[in-house]
Amino acid sequence: MEKEIAGSMSTSATDNYLTHSRGLKSWLFTLDHKRIGVMYLVSIMTALAVGGFLAMLIRVELAAPGPTIMGNNSLLGSDPAAGKDIYNQIFTLHGAVMIFLFIIPGVPAALGNFVLPVMLGAKDVAFPRLNLVSYYLWVIGAAFFLLVLVSGGLDTGWTLYAPYSTSTDTRVLSAGLGVFILGFSSIFTGLNFIATVHTLRPPGMTWFKMPLFVWALYATAVIQVLATPVLGITVLLLAAELLFKVGIFDPALGGDPVLFQHFFWFYSHPAVYIMILPAMGIISETISVFSRKHIFGYKFIALSSVAIALLGFLVWGHHMFISGQSPLASMIFSALTFSVSIPSAIKVFNWLATMYKGSIQLDTPMCYALSFILLFGIGGLTGLFLGALSVDVILHDTYFVVAHFHYTMMGGTLVAFLAGLHYWWPKITGRMFNNRLGQIAALMVFLSFNLTFFPQFLLGTRGMPRRYFDYSDLSKLDSSFTLLNLHSSVGAFLLGGAMVLTLSYLVHSLFRGRPAPANPWGGNSLEWHCSSPPPHDNFASPPAVGDPYDFTGLEYDPDLGGYVPRRRSVPAPETQPVP
Amino acid sequence: MTAPGAIAPTLSTASGWLLGQAGESFWLPPPDSTLAGAVDPVFYFILWVSVFFFGLITLLMVLFLVRFRRRAGIGPTPSPSHNTPLEVTWSVIPLILVILIFYFGFTGYMDMRVPPREAYEIHVVAQRWQWMFKYPNGHVDENLHVPVDQAVRLIMQSKDVIHSLFIPDFRVKMDVVPGRYTKTWFQAKEPGQHLLLCTEYCGTGHSDMSATVFVHAAGKFEKWLADAGKFMEDLPPAERGELLYRRHGCQGCHSADGTAKTGPSFQGIFGQTHAFTNAPPTQVDENYIRESILEPSAKVRQGYSDKMNSYKGSLNDEEIADLIEFIKSLK
Amino acid sequence: MTDAKALPPEEADAGHHRFLAHHFDSPEQQFYTGKLGMWLFLTTEILFFGGLFCAYAVYRANHPDIFVDGHHFLSTALGATNTAVLIFSSLTMAWSVRSAQLSRTRGLIACLVTTLVCAFVFLGIKYVEYAEKMEHGLIPNRIYFERLEPRLAFEPDEAYLREKLSHYADPSAAGEDLDLRVRKVRIFFGIYFCMTGLHALHVIAGIGVILWILVRSLKGHFSSAYFGPVDYVGLYWHLVDLIWIYLFPLLYLIH
């Protein structure tokens, strides 16, 4: 068994999935999940850059009350009215691009596609052609968003509330079609992952021997399959209303606007669990590996992922406490909302307990993982404010909500994505990145993120509504509105800088990075038992399955710069050499 | 006093003591209505629970990072990877806390949704991008005037898309939905002025859609209402028209001074001939203005879109005549 | 299942079936996985239609009179015929799966063709129904508020509506006059067209995949060693049938 592992751990780049076949067509028509994962990675990071650029525009505009760069005879609007319209389109597209093109596909498509089959010791996902179709559906959906961008924009907010969305003359139909297609991309990915986890596990890997990242992807896939169709029908009905004037949501046609909100949030709330569950899976992996200690409370973490996935379907009405829905409905949704908070809180305690009595090394993935715990911690705790009915009355639709979801989606998912990207970077690319720069960038991200978004909690509690182009009504009464917005804008630029730094050293590593060993970090899940990068077929035969969180069988080899199976002559784990 | 009723003032006193402030706080606007009692104590309770747990997590993390950092020659200390009593404890304690939070939030919310029986009713109409407040004597105003120490119920509807009425100082927020009525209520504690904002995105003028809430001292409100109602009668038609122009939301889309907005400016248009996308060119006269108010889609000015709501049923003939005079007066 | 006489020549190599994908260890694993995948897809379809059924439930609960009035304009006879046609097509589809399992290629092709014919009959009847509705302008497109200029593409045949409704007593307790009932009944058709229209689109998609399976059957791809795709398409077709079985009473058999 050791020879087998040693053999497949050779770091030569003679034949891996990158070199297996060459040429553009071998990539565009690939059925290799690893290549599809890489294509997704490049694509969604492009989407992240576009969304981030739009965010920068927003923050420059909001740095001062009144028109700043929009509506001042500039490229962004010649007069205040035009400036406002442009601003409305920019925040709408920022939300739509970030949510539909980056964060929902994000971890499952870019990292999950690559890692899942390898973690299962399989040769590919269950339906490789469907996987490629998923990717191209993403591309087509993105093309529709691009069409929206260049042909008149969208100004409804990413939430597309009716009757605004059924009575505006912006590109709701194109955007809706894009969302519909992206929905199918997501559904097919979820479908693929569920089938893969059910049928392609190696002999010996029972459900409770799977790595937690697999559990996380599985729970996410269940949500993708069950919730996304409802988004599909919502968008379809919106289209029917726009095209054929069928009265469903617009009261002028005999419809009900609050029904739209129910339909929309029935998907969009579970969607946030699509965003966060895979992220939590990454944290479980990294905390354990970089503490060299078995994850604490494995069974709980695994089952809590499924619990969160299922409970997440019951709480959509907490976005609608102020919509005019009945107090009874609001009460039920509030109670259920708190129930979902408990599994998440316990995961945090489990992660901390994993660190207890561990041997912690602050490599870049670990820096991001710890960042996640703090930032998602704040995000989750601020969710308590929003779930409490009377407090939600004052916080709904204010900047408090904006801060809350940025802490959870960005401080949570994006940070975890970065953790995973750095963790699996050697496996995907075969290169090591500059760890020192990574640590610096991670710290920069953490600090600038807080500078950007913490002031927004204050803006919200003090009364600043969302989606405001001009907050001078507020700043005239209280100058702190201006100051807080300015802090937020400065932070945003620093955050953008940190992201650029990250991109730079990662790209640099592709050309100048040290070749990566098979197991640079000392993980014991199956992806670390093949070479970096993996061969085309991942494993020649199904590898032996052990406990993915048992690190006692590994030791660090300084010559290799990575971990290898412990030689029998080496003494007990307590005194293993450390890097 | 019921149990929740006793907890709220206790929390309030505790938080006030901790923050060292009476009314003004770091987080929240001044609590200028009685509804603040349903909101603020719960807010501070959650705040302190959050601060405690976040502090605990941060402390433990830093402690572990230092104490258990990777050191040459020393590996991790074997320790169990689960501990049922511990896991139960850290599940049950948060569970109890969130149940408490839910309960306080729910009882406060019920207070906010159920107005007292004797409440003064004011109708609110929201349209892009102006609020209109209709008082029992028929007076329509662009600002909200209320008496102090009196429960006021707002009955709200929208003429176009969803808006949301938000008065931060009063802890009041409720969506205003087309096709149905929504209601909210509050009781102001002191005379003064407060900001009222729209907080459900409604288009170009969303951040301009604000109004002022005037809380009148005891006895002053009735006088204001009577004066306001009569005020209109004594004015010449063009000035009445200007008030109507402001109060019924026309100024949201039509400027009086030539500024470009969603709709054509009124400056100097009387007597001009305009081109239309769906009708032959027409001169702006009394009939044209009346038709534009009642059936705006009949003639859409070239270069503008067909976005105007009709005012059929909102403006009577006399008011339309006043508006015509006002528009005539704009040179 | 490994009877050499039943297998066409290219499948005689039992080591690696022609249609076995490289990442599966055995045809059984591939078949089982494919079936799981199709069931997952059907689950998404149920959720997809579920939203519409929800909207139906909400509107019917709030305005039962509109639904009672509306269903008079649907032909129960045509709807029942369509139901029978689809149920029969499900039978022939199941039969075709069985034929594939038994390597009876001729039977497979015959059953698939019959299923296709039934699908076209269904669509034909639907066309007749839709055409009749269009002729009388019974499609949603009515503006209820004054603020939007009525931009109706199809004027409702109010005389026809009035004449038909006058035969039936007012289903609501409010004692509404005929004019109001005529105005309101068109809401029903919004729901009707959305639900049956989406279903018809799924029938069309079903025709597409059945044609694909037919072409592959003519090429001799399917046998007892490999019939997965026929099975999966069969499952899909059964769902399409099942959805119609719910739609029919909900729309046509309202009392």
Give the SSE map.
The complex is a heterotrimer of chains A (579), B (331) and C (255).
Chain A: H1 2-8, H2 24-28, H3 33-62, H4 80-103, H5 106-119, H6 128-150, H7 164-167, H8 172-199, H9 212-244, H10 257-291, H11 298-311, H12 327-355, H13 364-387, H14 389-395, H15 399-429, H16 435-461, H17 472-477, H18 480-512, E1 554-557, E2 562-565
Antiparallel strand pairs in A: 1-2
Helix pairs in contact in A: 3-4, 3-5, 3-6, 3-18, 5-8, 5-9, 5-15, 6-8, 8-9, 9-10, 9-11, 10-11, 10-12, 10-13, 10-15, 11-12, 12-13, 13-15, 13-16, 15-16, 16-18
Chain B: H1 3-19, H2 36-67, H3 84-113, E1 120-127, E2 130-134, E3 140-141, E4 144-147, E5 151-158, E6 163-167, E7 172-176, E8 182-187, E9 192-198, E10 211-216, H4 220-234, H5 237-247, E11 273-274, E12 282-283, H6 286-294, H7 317-329
Parallel strand pairs in B: 1-5, 4-10
Antiparallel strand pairs in B: 1-2, 2-3, 5-8, 6-7, 6-9, 9-10, 11-12
Helix pairs in contact in B: 1-2, 2-3, 5-7
Chain C: H1 27-62, H2 64-71, H3 76-101, H4 105-135, H5 158-165, H6 178-184, H7 186-218, H8 228-252
Structure report:
The complex is a heterotrimer of chains A (579), B (331) and C (255). Chain A has one domain: Cytochrome C Oxidase, Chain A. By secondary structure, chain A is mainly α. Chain A is globular, with a radius of gyration of 24 Å. Chain A is built from 18 helices and two strands. Chain B has three domains: 98 residues, no CATH class; 112 residues, Cupredoxins -  blue copper proteins (Immunoglobulin-like, Sandwich); 95 residues, Cytochrome Bc1 Complex, Chain D, domain 2, CATH 1.10.760. Chain C is mainly α. In chain C, helix 1 runs antiparallel to helix 7 and helix 3 packs antiparallel against helix 4. Chains in contact: A-B, A-C, B-C. The interface between A and B is large, with 100 and 90 residues.
